[in-house]
Specification:
heterodimer; A: 286 residues; mainly beta; Cyclophilin; 7-stranded mixed sheet; 6-stranded antiparallel sheet; 32% strand; elongated; B: 241 residues; alpha+beta; Gyrase A, domain 2; 5-stranded mixed sheet; 4-stranded antiparallel sheet; 5 helices; 14 strands; 25% helix; Biotin-dependent carboxyltransferase family protein (chain A); Cyclophilin-like_dom_sf (chain A)
C-alpha cells in the first residue's frame, strides 16, 4: 500500500535524488543525482534496495517529516543527529518507523550532506527516466513545507540493533583526488605546484551546480572555445576562481578545465562544509 | 605544429576528442561524423556522446578500465576506413515576435549601429543558422551564422531574469532562452516555441547539425502560437536538407 512522508519543515536544502538521468546531456540536460553517490548507494544497499533507488539528499540542516505508514529507513553520509520522535538514531543502521512517527535532525557533527533511504525507494514522479530533482527540468527542485513523498509501505520486520558500518572515510577526509584536466598543461609550473600544495575550502556560493573555492589562483589562462564539461570538472576563471562543476552543472563551458575530480574526489568534496580545509591530490593516468 | 585530432582522457570514465579550435561548418561536420560513428559502435554500452564546436566527449556512465584503448581502437577504425556517415539534417522555421513588448534592447542596437529596427529584423531573419550544439541550459542552441553587421557585445550588467523564449544577440552569437534564466545577451524578440518540452516524444526537437531560420510574426500571431504550444498542438515547421 502507498504511504507518504509529509514534510513539516523543509530544513536548509533537501531534494530527491537517484543516480541521475542518462541520454540527455547532448541536449544540455545535466545528469543530476546524489552529490555523494557512495553514501546514497550505501543507504540503499543496507536496505537491500537497488543501489540507485531514489533517496532524500539532506544538506546541513535536516527537514522535519512525518510518516503516514510503516517504513524501514537508513541514514548515511553526514552525521546530522537524526531523531525519531525525539529518540536519537545512528547513521548506517536500518531503523523501523511506525505510522505517525516524526523524523527530525539536530546538530551537525561531521560531513555536509546526509542521505535518507527508504525501503523500496521514494516513489516520486520520474522525468526523462530519473527521479532526480533538478531546477529547470523537474517540477520541484527542493523540499518545501507540505510536500508529500509517496513510498510503498513495508511490513514490520526485525532490524539489527547495531550498525555494521563505521563513518565512511571520505566524509571526513580532507584529500580530494583529481586527474589532470584537458587544459592542465597550460598552467605555469608554479601554479601546478600551488594546486597541490595549497589548502582550499568551499565558498558559501556553492550549490548542486558547482562548488567554488574561496582561495583565488591568479593566472593568465585565456578562455577556451566552449567545450564539453562533466560533474567533477574544475574550471579556472580569469579572475582566479576555481569552480568544481557538480551533479547539476551545465554540460558545456568556456573556462579552462584544469582538473577532473575522481568519483571519490567528488564524493569527498561534497561533504565539506564551506570553510572546511581540503587538499588536491593529483593522480596519474595509468 | 599541433596535430589534430587530439585524444585526451578526462578523469576515470571520459575521453575527449578535439579537432582544430575553430567555429566552422567543416570542423563541425568532422565532429558530427565521428559522433555518429561512435554512437553506433557504442550503442550497447551506457555511454553519452556530446559535442561542442570542435570537441566530442565520450562519457562512460559506469567507468570502465579500458575505455581509452577502446576509443583509440574505434578512432583508428574510423580514420582508416574513411567511413562516410550521412548526417541527416533539417531546416526548422522558428517564429519570432520582434515587437517592442519583447525587444528590450532593439532600440539600443539600432542607435549604436545606426541601423533601422526594420533592417535589423530583416537581417536577423534572412539567414539559415547552423546549430553547433546544445549547452548552458536544456534546449539552449549554439547557433552560427549571425550576419557580421549584427554582432553586438554583451550587456555590461546581465539581467537577473531573461524571459523564456527571449531571442538575444551576444557577440557573434544569437539564440533563444529556452527557460527563464539570468542572461547577458541583448534581447531583440521572443519566440513562442518550446525548445525543451518534457511533454513531447522528443524533448529537444532540434539537434547539432540542423539549421534554423527565424520568421517574423506580430503580437497577435505570437499569442495564437503560444496558445497552440500550451495545448501541445503546435508543430515547428521543418524540411529535410
Amino acid at each position: 500500500m502507498m504511504a507518504q512522508v509529509e514534510i513539516l519543515q523543509p530544513g536548509l536544502y533537501s531534494s530527491i535524488q537517484d543516480f541521475g538521468r542518462y541520454g540527455y546531456r547532448e541536449f544540455g540536460v545535466p545528469t543530476s543525482g546524489a552529490m555523494d553517490r557512495q553514501a546514497a548507494k550505501l543507504a540503499n544497499l543496507l536496505l537491500k534496495n537497488e543501489p540507485d533507488a531514489s533517496v532524500m539528499e539532506i544538506t546541513l540542516q535536516g527537514p522535519k517529516m512525518a510518516f503516514s505508514g510503516t517504513a524501514q529507513i537508513v541514514i548515511t553520509g553526514a552525521q546530522l543527529s537524526p531523531e525519531l520522535d525525539g529518540g536519537e538514531l545512528q547513521n548506517n543502521q536500518v531503523v523501523q518507523v511506525m505510522a505517525g512517527q516524526v523524523l527530525s535532525f539536530r546538530r551537525r557533527k561531521c560531513g555536509y550532506r546526509a542521505y535518507l533511504a527508504i525501503k523500496g525507494g521514494f516513489q516520486t514522479e520520474a522525468v526523462l527516466g530519473s527521479r532526480s530533482w533538478c531546477d529547470g527540468v523537474t517540477p520541484h527542485s527542493r523540499l518545501e513545507k507540505g510536500v508529500k513523498l509517496p513510498f510503498l509501505e513495508s511490513k514490520r520486520a526485525s532490524v539489527s540493533k547495531y550498525s555494521s558500518v563505521k563513518v565512511d572515510e571520505h566524509i571526513t577526509s580532507e584529500v580530494v583526488e583529481a586527474f589532470r584536466g584537458p587544459e592542465f598543461d597550460l598552467l605555469q609550473p608554479s601554479e601546478k605546484e600551488a594546486l597541490q600544495k595549497w589548502h582550499f575550502s568551499a565558498a558559501k556560493e556553492s550549490n548542486r551546480m558547482g562548488i567554488q573555492f574561496q582561495e583565488k589562483m591568479e593566472n593568465n589562462l585565456k578562455p577556451i572555445l566552449t567545450g564539453p564539461v562533466l560533474p567533477g570538472t574544475v574550471q579556472l576563471t580569469p579572475s582566479g576562481t576555481l569552480i568544481a562543476l557538480m551533479r547539476d552543472g551545465q554540460t558545456t563551458g568556456g573556462y579552462p578545465r584544469i582538473l577532473q575530480l575522481t568519483e571519490t574526489g567528488i564524493n569527498t568534496l561534497v561533504q565539506k562544509m564551506p570553510g572546511e580545509k581540503l587538499r588536491i591530490k593529483l593522480l596519474d593516468y595509468s | 605544429m599541433e596535430v589534430f585530432p587530439k585524444i585526451k582522457r578526462m578523469g576515470e570514465g571520459a575521453i575527449l576528442v578535439e579537432f582544430e579550435p575553430e567555429i566552422t561548418p567543416e570542423i563541425l561536420a568532422k565532429v558530427l561524423k565521428l559522433k555518429k560513428f561512435l554512437q553506433k559502435k557504442l550503442a550497447k554500452q551506457k555511454v553519452e556522446v556530446t559535442n561542442t564546436y570542435n570537441s566530442l566527449l565520450i562519457y562512460y556512465v559506469s567507468s570502465i578500465e579500458n575505455a581509452y584503448n577502446e576509443i583509440h581502437g574505434l578512432f583508428e577504425e574510423f580514420s582508416g576506413a574513411n567511413i562516410e556517415e550521412i548526417i541527416e539534417s533539417k531546416l526548422f522555421h522558428i517564429p519570432v515576435c520582434y515587437s517592442d513588448v519583447f525587444a528590450l534592447d532593439l532600440d539600443e542596437i539600432s542607435r549604436v549601429k545606426k541601423l533601422a529596427k526594420e533592417e535589423i529584423i530583416r537581417l536577423h531573419s534572412s539567414v539559415d543558422y547552423l546549430v553547433y550544439f546544445t549547452g548552458f541550459l536544456p534546449g539552449f542552441l549554439y547557433l552560427g551564422g549571425l550576419p557580421q553587421v549584427l554582432h553586438f557585445s554583451r550587456r555590461d550588467h546581465p539581467r537577473p531574469q531573461v524571459q523564456k523564449g527571449a531571442v538575444g544577440i551576444g557577440e557573434k552569437q544569437t539564440g533563444i532562452y529556452p527557460q527563464t534564466s539570468p542572461g547577458g545577451w541583448n534581447i531583440i524578440g521572443n519566440s513562442p516555441v518550446k525548445l525543451f518540452d518534457l511533454a513531447a516524444d522528443k524533448p529537444c526537437p532540434i539537434s547539432a547539425g540542423d539549421r534554423l531560420r527565424f520568421y517574423q510574426v506580430d503580437l497577435e500571431e505570437h499569442q495564437r502560437i503560444s496558445e497552440l504550444v500550451e495545448r501541445g498542438e503546435f508543430r515547428i515547421k521543418s524540411e529535410k536538407l
